[in-house]
Amino acid sequence: xxxxxxxxxxxxxxxxxxxxxxxxxxxxxxxxxxxxxxxxxxxxxxxxxxxxxxxxxxxxxxxxxxxxxxxxxxxxxxxxxxxxxxxxxxxxxxxxxxxxxxxxxxxxxxxxxxxxxxxxxxxxxxxxxxxxxxxxxxxxxxxxxx
Length: 146
Fold this sequence. Notes:
Blueprint: H1 4-12, H2 30-36, H3 40-48, H4 63-70, H5 73-81, H6 97-103, H7 107-115, H8 137-144
Helix pairs in contact: 2-3, 2-4, 3-5, 4-5, 6-7, 7-8
């Protein structure tokens, strides 16, 4: 039985209530949108429904990136617990969720990703690591301790 708030979210965002893991007619995946919106209840529901964790948005980013964008620790934790590729690299830039979080000042997200085992040595196609792109003193300290 689908909880009414999940049914409402799917309906309001033009996703199928009978096949809730499928993308909509605009090519948007429900998992990515739920992460962007910080809807951990929807993320957990979609994971339980077997939603793929390797779906990408139009920019080549996965759901973990979207959850990091939203700075939602519950969504991030749910995805990590479901075994999403924490070190997935965007094909266009080579950036990981950790590199994105470090470069955009998302201090809590950087800490959460590092605690979950994200690899700080990975580099973008331009040869930058998360440490190279650290945008706050706290992030710089978190990364330089490794």
